[in-house]
């Protein structure tokens, strides 16, 4: 691993205080959508002896977390967030261009689960892993399963890193992992979509889980023998999650009819219901009702409509799901837990940035 | 010399000693025969050896089979002193059974307690039974190995990965170390490469062998030509030849088996299995198994090589048909977005292209009727024609007319009746930083101008599809993009994407306008990403037509 030795001297080490100051300065560049300034700042840090991991993880990723919070708090618009993310992507590109293009280690394939469009975190992992000497192919945001499989057979990578940020995409992530395992390639899972500490990663067949770019390099340093981490995925306890997914469309229709939202909210609400069904299926797939509870806690704040109504809307949706899935014992149990969960809280603390 | 016990009649002897005999159906009141001679004859007729002891552990009786199998057991002597160690030990420890190899036979004995502290040992010769069980287990292990090998070998279509799998699979079941010697599919070089895996390694290692290896390792040249050779014990003198393939700490190999890995066409390589010095050599069944395994490995490797060639071919074609990386155009900020309809090659009938010119650039965005590879090939033809024709005609309207004629002149054009909707434009940067776009249209959806305040205005172009009619009419229009304004050209795959809450509704122009309004002010790349994301979410996993878009904005003056 690259680490302290790459730095010019101990006085250059990014202590917590100056890292914080650097992040502040970087955020100001983002706020102004000033990508030349942001790039200058990042490259300046590299020149000052910071490693690629230091710059990308401690500055760019840290700033991105702050942006997520600002967006959640309503201080930044979607457009502002997108513009800032766009600047950070260019910065990651510029920092990546400084990495010597001569990999000394194996081939790592990195992809975001299908449906996941926030690729910046994964892009950062790609560059940090590349700086660690690996040959990295980044397939980008929202990679369809078929593309991943066809690429696997073409390139024959040693390992696949799969990013999943939102747990309701776990079913898709699990299918992609299954495809990788079937092609004989072990998968290292990354991101909070596999649970806060990666607790659901093993259930969907991942060989290991990491929460950060530095975790990824550490895990790749270890051994991931294909004999143990490839082949058939561990079988889920029951196929109830499949039966739940089969009713997804019906549930969305029923929930729309029950809530009867204003026209302009219908799409967002339909998406929210579909994601809730996905989260329920994922919770059943990994056997942990907490996945659904986390999701509904988050949705209670994110549903369309006025804040006061959201609790009622969520209750209606959950009741609708329960009615449609009454013959499925686990769904019934999980949904009852979700309906019994405490009502809307004030403030947005504890929310996950998406 | 033999004594007969009065009630020493054994029960049924055929049940292997597993069931307790006391419960067997004995006629309730039949007195035992008093004829000692008859009892003796009955005992000697048994296929099982019978030995009885009295209350002191002294042998009282041995039948004829016992005398044959256990000649060391003599009546009148203590059983614990007999020269059958397993039986003596069992008798001493009060054990209920024993199993041992004795005088070249496999014997299994079971004790039965008799009245008055006496015991009877029933001993069976299980040599053949044991051999059958062992061979059955060995056969099962072989079958399981081949099944595992089959499933693992079938998983990958990638050559290097298949080689690694072959090297690891045979260890430790077949040998302590396996080396696959192979030649790269490209005929340019004739150097043998190797992939090696030894028991305990974390992963296989690879390397290039000296060219002399093939001649010096006995049997390797034959195997690489497809001929099997017999396994050979390895002599020190020959170790040097193999040393290039062995890890430094492996020590002296015991036996080595070289097997060809045949595949369709040419042999895919050779599998060298090495057993350590302490391990028994390869027997006949081991050799058959190794050959079978090598044959399956060869077939898998052959399939991977074939797939590799085909995939390479497809990739080369695909790269020429995928949307290009956009060139840097001074004064203009550009971004393209592309999603092919469900196809692992990711090519389709939508396309865009940007070609720098003296004062700016020329761009094209179009949609060829049809899907998949056939449509992609036509997009390639349209793009190439444009690149050539622009050398003689730089005005969009003139160029689109030329293109129409060129497409008509291609053989089969009429029969194929393939046509293209197209936007073709030039971009000129003006001194104040604005960009002037002249756009000629061929029946394509109108491009949209997005203003910084979120207003979205269609640019009416018109015209008829290209390649459909010889006398088609085309139109041209002009639009000026002030700094901050963005021009988006897109194909109908965007607006006709079906999905949403009811899963059958089209994304539609209204939704597109709204999405663009919310993304006003974003740089082209971010705007295109956002649109792709929205359409993707709208589709929610449903199939869609090809989608292409191209966004143009005057560069920010920095």
What does this protein look like?
The complex is a heterodimer of chains A (354) and B (558). By secondary structure, chain A is α/β, with parallel strands linked by helices. Chain A folds into three domains: 1-98, Methionine synthase domain (Methyltransferase, Methionine Synthase (B12-binding Domains), Chain A, domain 1, Orthogonal Bundle), CATH 1.10.1240; 103-235, Cobalamin-binding domain (Rossmann fold), CATH 3.40.50.280; 240-340. Helix content of chain A is 57%, strand content 6%. Chain A has 15 helices and five strands. Chain A has helices at residues 16-31, 35-47, 52-72, 78-96, 120-131, 145-155, 170-182, 213-221, 226-229, 240-246, 248-259, 266-286, 289-302, 307-324, 329-340; strands at residues 107-112, 135-138, 159-163, 187-190, 208-210. In chain A, strands 2-1-3-4-5 form a five-stranded parallel β-sheet, with helices on both faces. In chain A, strand 3, helix 7 and strand 4 (187-190) form a beta-alpha-beta unit. In chain A, helix 14 runs antiparallel to helix 15. Chain A starts with 15 loop residues before the first helix and ends in a 14-residue tail after the last helix. Residues 1-13 and 345-354 of chain A have low confidence and may be disordered. In chain B, the strands form five sheets. In chain B, strands 8-7-6-11-10-9 form a six-stranded antiparallel β-sheet. Chain B folds into three domains: 36-125, Beta-Lactamase; 142-313, Beta-Lactamase (2-Layer Sandwich); 325-554, PPM-type phosphatase domain (Phosphatase 2c, domain 1). In chain B, strand 15 and strand 16 (435-442) form a beta hairpin. With 558 residues, chain B is of the alpha+beta class. The longest helix of chain B has 38 residues, at 284-321. Chain B is built from 15 helices and 23 strands. Chain B is elongated and about 125 Å long. In chain B, helix 4 (127-153) packs parallel to helix 9 (284-321), helix 5 (159-169) runs antiparallel to helix 9 (284-321) and helix 10 packs across helix 11 (396-409). The interface between A and B is large, with 42 and 42 residues.
């Amino acid at each position: 691993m690259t680490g302290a030795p790459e730095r010019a001297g101990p006085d250059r080490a990014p202590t917590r205080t100056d890292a914080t100051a650097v992040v502040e300065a970087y955020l100001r560049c983002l706020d102004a959508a000033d990508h030349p300034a942001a790039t200058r700042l990042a490259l300046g840090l590299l020149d000052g002896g910071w490693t690629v991991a230091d710059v990308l993880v401690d500055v760019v990723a840290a700033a991105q977390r702050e942006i997520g919070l600002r967006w959640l708090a309503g201080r930044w618009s979607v457009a502002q967030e997108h513009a800032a993310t766009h600047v950070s992507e260019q910065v990651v590109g510029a920092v990546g261009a400084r990495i010597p293009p001569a990999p000394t280690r194996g081939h790592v394939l990195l992809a975001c689960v299908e449906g996941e469009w926030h690729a910046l975190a994964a892009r950062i992992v790609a560059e940090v892993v590349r700086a660690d000497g690996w040959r990295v192919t980044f397939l980008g945001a929202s990679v369809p399963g078929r593309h991943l499989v066809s690429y696997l057979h073409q390139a024959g990578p040693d390992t696949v890193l799969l990013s999943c940020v939102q747990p309701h995409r776990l079913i898709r992530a699990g299918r992609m992992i299954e495809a990788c395992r079937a092609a004989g390639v072990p998968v290292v899972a990354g991101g909070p979509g596999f649970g806060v500490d990666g607790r659901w990663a093993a259930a969907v067949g991942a060989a290991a889980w990491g929460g950060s770019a530095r975790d990824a390099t550490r895990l790749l340093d270890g051994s991931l023998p294909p004999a143990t981490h490839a082949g058939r995925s561990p079988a889920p306890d029951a196929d109830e999650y499949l039966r739940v997914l089969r009713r997804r469309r019906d549930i969305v229709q029923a929930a729309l009819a029950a809530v009867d939202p204003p026209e302009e909210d219908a799409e967002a609400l339909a998406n929210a219901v579909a994601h809730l069904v996905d989260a329920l299926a994922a919770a059943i797939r990994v056997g942990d009702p907490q996945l659904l509870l986390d999701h509904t806690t988050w949705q209670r704040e994110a549903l369309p409509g006025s804040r006061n109504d959201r609790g009622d809307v969520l209750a209606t949706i959950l009741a609708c799901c329960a009615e449609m899935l009454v013959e499925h014992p686990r769904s019934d149990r999980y949904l009852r837990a979700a309906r019994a969960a405490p009502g809307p809280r004030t403030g947005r603390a504890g929310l996950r940035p998406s | 010399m033999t004594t007969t016990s009065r009630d020493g009649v054994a029960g049924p002897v055929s049940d292997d000693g597993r069931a307790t005999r006391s419960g067997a159906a004995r006629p309730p009141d039949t007195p035992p025969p008093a004829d000692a001679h008859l009892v003796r004859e009955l005992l000697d007729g048994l296929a099982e050896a019978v030995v009885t002891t009295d209350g002191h552990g002294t042998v009282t009786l041995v039948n004829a089979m016992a005398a044959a199998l256990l000649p060391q057991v003599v009546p009148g002597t203590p059983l614990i002193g007999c020269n059958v160690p397993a039986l003596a030990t069992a008798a001493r420890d009060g054990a209920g059974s024993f199993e041992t190899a004795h005088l070249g036979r496999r014997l299994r004995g079971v004790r039965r307690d008799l009245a008055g502290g006496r015991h009877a040992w029933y001993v069976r010769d299980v040599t053949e039974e044991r051999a059958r069980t062992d061979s059955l287990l060995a056969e099962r292990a072989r079958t399981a190995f081949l099944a595992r090998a089959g499933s693992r070998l079938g998983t990958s279509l990638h050559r290097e990965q298949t080689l690694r799998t072959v090297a690891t699979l045979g260890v430790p079941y077949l040998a302590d170390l396996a080396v696959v010697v192979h030649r790269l599919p490209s005929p340019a070089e004739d150097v043998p490469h190797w992939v090696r895996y030894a028991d305990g390694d974390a992963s296989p290692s690879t390397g290039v062998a000296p060219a002399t290896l093939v001649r010096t390792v006995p049997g390797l040249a034959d195997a690489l030509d497809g001929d099997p050779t017999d396994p050979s014990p390895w002599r020190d003198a020959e170790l040097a030849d193999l040393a290039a393939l062995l890890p430094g700490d492996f020590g002296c190999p015991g036996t080595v088996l070289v097997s060809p890995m045949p595949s369709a066409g040419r042999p895919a390589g050779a599998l060298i299995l090495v057993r350590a010095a302490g391990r028994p050599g390869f027997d006949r069944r081991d050799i058959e198994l190794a050959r079978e395994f090598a044959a399956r490995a060869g077939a898998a490797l052959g399939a991977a090589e074939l797939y590799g060639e085909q995939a390479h071919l497809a990739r080369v074609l695909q790269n020429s048909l995928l949307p290009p990386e956009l060139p840097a155009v001074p004064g203009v900020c550009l971004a393209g977005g592309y999603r092919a309809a469900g196809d692992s090659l990711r090519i389709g009938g939508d396309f865009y292209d940007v070609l720098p010119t003296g004062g700016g650039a020329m761009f094209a965005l179009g949609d060829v009727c049809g899907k998949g590879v056939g449509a992609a090939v036509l997009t390639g033809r349209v793009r190439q024609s444009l690149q050539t024709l622009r050398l003689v005609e730089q005005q969009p309207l003139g160029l689109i007319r030329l293109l129409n004629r060129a497409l008509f002149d291609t053989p089969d054009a009429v029969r194929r009746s393939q046509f293209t909707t197209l936007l073709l434009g030039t971009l000129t940067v003006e001194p104040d930083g604005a960009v002037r776009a002249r756009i000629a249209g061929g029946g394509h959806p109108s491009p949209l101008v997005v203003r910084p305040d979120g207003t979205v205005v269609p640019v009416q172009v018109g015209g008829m599809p290209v390649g459909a009619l010889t006398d088609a009419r085309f139109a041209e229009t002009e639009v000026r993009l002030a700094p901050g304004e963005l021009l988006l050209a897109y194909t109908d795959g965007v607006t006709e994407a079906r999905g949403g809450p009811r899963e059958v509704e089209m994304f539609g122009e209204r939704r597109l306008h709204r999405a663009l309004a919310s993304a006003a002010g974003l740089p082209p790349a971010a705007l295109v990403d956002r649109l792709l994301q929205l359409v993707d979410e709208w589709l929610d996993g449903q199939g869609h037509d090809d989608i292409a878009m191209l966004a143009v904005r005057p560069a920010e003056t920095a």
